[in-house]
């Protein structure tokens, strides 16, 4: 999370200009527009920690590579229940 916490679009540009291949925005910064832009720009996206079932479900619908959670069994159950 070195780059995130301020203007997510400015940080996305910085990540791309710096040659990063992956970003890890906080779950509350991860929405369809932002994640899709990052992926279309060639970045892999993992989402910062969330343990809230509704939030896990929401971010699992995005084109992300993974998410961070303290409740992996719950996250797996939710994601599998979504057919992913």
The ordered H/E elements are HEHEHEH
Q: Kindly report the average pLDDT value.
A: 93
Name the helicity range.
Answer: 40-55%
Number of strand elements: 3
Anisotropy-based shape: elongated
What does this structure look like?
The protein is mostly helical and 84 residues long. It has one domain (8-81). Helix content is 44%, strand content 10%. It has 4 helices and 3 strands. It has helices at 8-17, 32-40, 53-60, 72-81; strands at 22-23, 44-47, 66-67. A 3-stranded parallel beta sheet has the order 1-2-3, with helices on one face. β2, α3 and β3 (66-67) form a beta-alpha-beta unit. α3 crosses α4. The radius of gyration is 13 Å and the shape is elongated. The N and C termini lie far apart (26 Å). The model has no long low-confidence stretch (mean pLDDT 93).
Output the keywords:
single chain; 84 residues; mainly alpha; three-stranded parallel sheet; 4 helices
Give a topology summary:
Elements: H1 8-17, E1 22-23, H2 32-40, E2 44-47, H3 53-60, E3 66-67, H4 72-81
Parallel strand pairs: 1-2, 2-3
Kindly summarize this structure in a few lines.
The protein is built from four helices and three strands. It is mostly helical and 84 residues long.
